Amino acid sequence: SEYLTFILVCIILGTETMMDTRTATAELGWTAYPASGWEEVSGYDENLNTIRTYQVCNVFEPSQNNWLLTTFVRRRAAQRVYVEMRFTVRDCSSIPRVPGSCKETFTSTIRERPGAYLKVDTIAADESFSQVDFGGRLMKVNTEVRSFGPLSRNGFYLAFQDYGACMSLLSVRVFYKKCPSVVQNFAVFPETMTGAESTSLVIARGTCIPNAEEVDVPIKLYCNGDGEWMVPIGSCTCKAGFEPDNSNVCRGKRLMFTSIYLSVCLSVCLSVYICPSVHPSVRPSVRPSVRLSIYLSIYLSIYLSIYLSIYLSIYLSIYLSIYLHELVWHTASCSRKASSPSSCTFTGVCTIWHV
């Protein structure tokens, strides 16, 4: 069961968004150079939601070199950052009399220091649209994700370079990955950033939960580049006088014994003093049955106290004690009234009317 719990924990991936143009309601205000290149416009995505986009389409002019620089993005504690780009590109072959300089790609770069641009990748479209698609409002949106690192400065700028494409940059989302805080093997592991490389493994030291202590080697988990926990090493166990409850809680045995004591006392008191008093005329004749209901109540009280919380076990013990006594009393009474079976209808008098 612990292994299955760990598998479920691993699939919960954590990401933190640093910038997302899809949520922008005002102008983005990015820097375009030259001014005749990228242009900011209001547009619509494939779901007809209003978005702020940048577009460029100087396909009939040769030697294009249009730059688009974002605003400053703070790095926070991230060492590796991911960029999700959603864009559309016009098919060059669908443009009449277009020169051979028409492109269907653009370049993504990053700038950490003034004047120092580092190329991330050349981005190509999986799908491009034609004039027919455009006339029919059929959008062929491409989504590409790239990552870069390690990062060391307080932040960075993203830049997009066009060499002669007819395209729209619909949205840009910048985010980093992290392994979320988790409780595993009776230890708490803090939220941990992924490493500088996609293959990095970052060690996270665990701390035993309350009323637990370390066993064997120091406890730790590894956070991989995808924000997944993996390779558990070591564990904690409940201290003496405590026991596991709900897989990652150490519950005091004293509390369990208190629960048992209260539940048993209530069961006995209810069985002996409350329910039999409802039927005083038959009390002596069904005394063995009352003892049976007491024994059953005690057994159920102990069982419930071990596996349930103290409040729930006491509540169920009270209810089951009353119900068991009523059922046993009814059975015993009917066995003595075989000559009059019509009088043996179980109505739950003690449970429903008197308690």
TrEMBL record:
Eph LBD domain segment(s): 15-184
Localization, UniProt: Membrane
A Gene Ontology BP annotation from the UniProt entry: axon guidance
Residues annotated as transmembrane: 255-274, 294-316
Organism: Electrophorus electricus (Electric eel)
Protein name per Swiss-Prot or TrEMBL: receptor protein-tyrosine kinase
Membrane disposition: Single-pass membrane protein
UniProt-listed Pfam families: Ephrin_CRD, Ephrin_lbd
Underlying gene: EPHB1
EC code: 2.7.10.1
Domain of life of the native organism: Eukaryota
Keyword presence, Phosphoprotein: no
Endpoints of the signal sequence: 1-17
One GO molecular-function entry: ATP binding
GO CC annotations on file: dendrite; plasma membrane
Keywords on record: ATP-binding, Glycoprotein, Kinase, Membrane, Nucleotide-binding, Receptor, Signal, Transferase, Transmembrane, Transmembrane helix, Tyrosine-protein kinase
